[in-house]
Amino acid sequence: MSTRPTRDEEAAQRPPLPMLEIVTTAYNLLLAHPRAWLTALVVPLLIEIAATAGFLALYGEALNRVPIDPSAIAGPVFYARFAGLILCLMIAYVFFAVSWHRFALLGPGERPRLLPAVLGRHMRFGWMSFLVLLLVLLAMLVPLVALILAQVESLIAILLAVTLTVALFVRWQLIFPAIALDRPIGFGQAWRLSRGHGLTLFWGFVLASLPWALANAVLTDLTQPLQNRFVVTGAQPLEALGAMLLGSLLDYASLAVVVGMLSGTYRHLVLATESPAALPNALPSG
User: Fold this and answer.
1) Is the residue at 94 inside a domain?
2) Which residue among 37, 140, 166, 237 has its CA within the 20 to 30 Å range from the CA of 130?
3) Residue 281 pLDDT > 50
4) Is 199 helix (H, G, I), strand (E, B) or coil?
5) How does 235-253 read in b/e, with b if 16+ C-beta sit within 10 Å?
6) How many angstroms separate the Cα of 251 from the Cα of each of 62, 104, 116, 216?
7) In a domain, 174, yes or no
8) Model pTM score
C-alpha cells in the first residue's frame, strides 16, 4: 500500500526555482520586445490616464489643501467616484497583465493586441485580483487589531501582520498565470505549488520591482510640485501630463517585469513538470 510522501520527500521532488535566471528573463522579455509592450499598454494607459485625470479634475484641489477639508471628500458621490476610479485602474491592470502573461508563456502567437477582446479569463483574472487583495488586507488587519487588543507591542504586531500579509501575497500569485492560460487553480493548489519557495518568490518580487520603484520615487520627487500647481491652478498642463505619463510608463514597465517573473515561476513549477510539448519557449522571439 502506497503512503503519502512526507514534506521532506515532497521538497526533494520539487523542481528548483532559479529566481535570478527567471527575473533576468523577465527583464530581457521587456527589453527585447518594446513594441509588444507598447501595444499591450496603449488601452490600459488611456483608461488609467482618463480616469485619473477626471478624478483629479474634480477633487485634486481639495486633496492638495493643507489641511484637507473633510467636507470636500466625503459623501456618497465622492465614494462612488473613488470606487469608479479604482475599478478603472483594475480594468487597466487586468488588460495588461493578461496580455503579458500570455505573451510570456505562449510566445509570438499570443502577441498583445491593441484592442484586447474581453473574455472569461479577464473576468476571472479581475475577480481573483480583487479577492486576493481583499484577503491580504484582511490578513493584515485582523491579526494586527487582535495583537494590539492583546496589548502586544505595536512594532511586533506590525511585523507579524506584515509577515503574514507578504507570505499570503507571494504564495498565491501562481493563480494569475494559470488563469491567463485558461487553466485556473485555487488558493490551495497555488499554496502547494509554491511550498518551499516563499522566500525565493519574495526576493523575485523585490528584484523585479525595486529598480522601477526607486526610479518612480525620484520622478515623483522631481515632478510633484509641478503636478500640484497644475491640480490647483491649471498651470503647465502639458508638462504635468507628461510627468503623469512618464510615471505610468514606469509603472507598466515594472508590471511587465513582475508579470514576466510570475510567468517564469509558473513555467518552472508547473509546465516544466509536464510533457516537453507543453513547455513553450522560455523567451518569445521575433
Assistant:
1) yes
2) 37
3) no
4) helix
5) eeeeebeebbeebbbbbbb
6) 25, 18, 20, 8
7) no
8) 0.82
